[in-house]
Amino acid sequence: MIDAIRSEWAKTWSTRSTxxxxxxxxxxxxxxxxxxxxAAAAEHARDPAAFGPEPDFRPLIFxxxxxxxxxxxxxxxxxxxxxxALTLTTVxxxxxxxxAKAVVCFGVTLAVGTVTxxxxxxxxxxxxxxxxxxxxxxxxxxxxxxxxGPGLLLALLGLIGLAVGALVRSTAGALIITIVIGVFxxxxxxxxxxWLARLIxxxxxxxxxxxxxxxxxxxxxPGPWAGIAVTCAWAAVLLVTAYAVFRRRDx
Amino acid sequence: xxxxMIEVSGLSKRYGDVIAVDDLTFDVKPGVVTGFLGPNxxxxxxxxxxxxxxxxxxxxxxxxxxxxxxxxxxxxxxxxALLDAGAVHPRRSARDHLRCxxxxxxxxxQRVDEVLDLVGLTAVxxxxxxxxxxxxxxxxxxxxxxxxDPSVLILDEPVNGLDxxxxxxxxxxxxxxxxxxxxxxxxxxxxAETAVTADRLIVVARGRLIAxxxxxxxxxxxxxxxxxxxxxxxxRVLVTEGASGVDPxxxxxxxxxxxxxxxxxxxxxxxxxxYELTPRRASLEEAFMELTR
Lengths: 251, 293
What we know:
By secondary structure, chain A is mostly helical. Helix content of chain A is 77%, strand content 0%. Chain A is elongated. Chain B has two domains: 6-218, P-loop containing nucleotide triphosphate hydrolases (Rossmann fold, 3-Layer(aba) Sandwich), CATH 3.40.50; 221-292, 2-Layer Sandwich (Alpha-Beta Plaits), CATH 3.30.70.100. Chain B has eleven helices and twelve strands.
């Protein structure tokens, strides 16, 4: 198992596209933190009640696409380049291949996600402070969870991407699913009837997971741990499904 | 002794209404090169993929070393396979490609350099595999197959895309690997190419086993051609001495049922002048076409 993980680790870092994707994840986090920060400041100037001092993690909605890509590509690239046959003749136990990919994916996205989360928080704070807006004190109870949480959330979203990649096998197909479920559906939540919007916010992997990073204590939405548990459940169910399919399907 | 063998029994693969492989049974033994021959679409690749556990058989089974590949403790030391030479990440260097495979089976690091050297890619090992010609990709694919120093080798159309020098090289390599006691299965749709390297032949057409034989037996002897100015007289002599058939036409005879050695001795004894004495074999291509029609 260790050897299979080392092999997946070597595969991950021996192509330049991984480095680009990692850089893209962090850059997207910083860029959207900047955009959302100034937008929030402008809104705040008009209506002081519009935005609170809590860190704004909406940038992660966009970041998750790149994180999902990092995960799904671990499978789709092998189907695209036909190297899956080689992988499966050198490591014929398919559960082992899936597990090794999942471990590498989780580790990489946990690290990159944690860095990105910190970038988002501190860029956001810098923007708000520069616009003379209040920010939540770093010593605030719950702030530790908010600072450490993005890594876990993005690592789970990476695993979901990995599972979707294993199921769909095509990069374009898996990416479209990630974008539609991850970005389009939650972005249009304000258009839906309230009961549907609440359902989506409570049970989609990204929106439920973002509750982990919330400090608002909204009684209508899941709490931090209930929210991330929903994301965990998505990752677990999709990985088990991916295993069941990958184990039987002709490679 | 099940080690080193490939055993295929009752193997079938069906895609909907299409039967790609139809009840194949054969063994591939160590120490000789076994040619796996059939026209394009005969089911050779599908059979190899089932042996490697990539595709699941509809029925029957394929075993290597007496077990399924997934149940062998060190897969790369057990079996090396070259299926599709194009199967490389285009933006990964040849050396990294092999390293990724080597670590998965805890192979020594220097093994990568050894196989690169063996296939003659050392000088270009740092280059992206996507920039390789088909011939170079074939060599890289072979390097991957040989990485674990496996006792069983499964090579799907390894001469595809190789230049004449590469073809000669791979023939020598394949024969040497078999002579070292390995089990070597090499597929091809080219009869002539296979005849040069293989000792045994497994011939398939439309998913069915057509022949499981030696190359010699496959190209059946087809009489001895004799040219002599005394064709009629000599024909009578040969029949008296036990030839089962002579077929005189002008100064030519095609003699059946008698060795060229015996014919030569009789010619000397009878004082018959010979211009030509040639054992004929049915052309391998003809035999192949006949069987797989």
